[in-house]
């Protein structure tokens, strides 16, 4: 057999394996593990700041209107006395005597319920006083003073105080109508209001706390001058302590 002088080995068409070598372009390089970790860290920080902004914004929107109310009334309550007193207006006082009902009143609580229905008073019964009958001296004589009842019904816009001597045919009632600013102050203090209002104000107080915390976190994340922030917070605390002890 005659063998050929040379054998030309060529891959069959379509069956060869081709390798492509990627050469990094000038100015580009593959990221190492440290750079990838840094990018992930920056991404998490950006997501955290975005979440903080959303929480801060929605919580602030929830307490915006009542926050204005509490800010204004807090200013008035802070200046209700002392050298920097700010007047909230003079109340209007009315007095009257109302006949007792035909059904006997058995206690100050019964009298408060009857007055609320009879005079259509908005508010809650407050402090009640029941002084039993006892002898009193009148010169050289001694007499028996009848039992004495006193009740108060408090509301945001008015307060009612009633007095009754057991055995009398009437109840003395004194009503104090508050001014607009005094009514706002009573809303701040929750005078004569329902449990629903108290719980609503609790949510506003919680939102103020959350606003403070998220505000501090946002400042620390967005501002690199953290020493200035520490100085401001520390200065406010020191000023509060010093002014409180003066």
TrEMBL record:
Keyword vocabulary terms for this entry: Membrane, Transmembrane, Transmembrane helix
Region (Disordered): 1-26
Transmembrane segments: 55-77, 197-220, 226-245
Keyword Transmembrane recorded: yes
Record has Metal-binding as a keyword: no
InterPro entries for the chain: PepSY_TM-like_2
Protein's name in the database: Peptidase
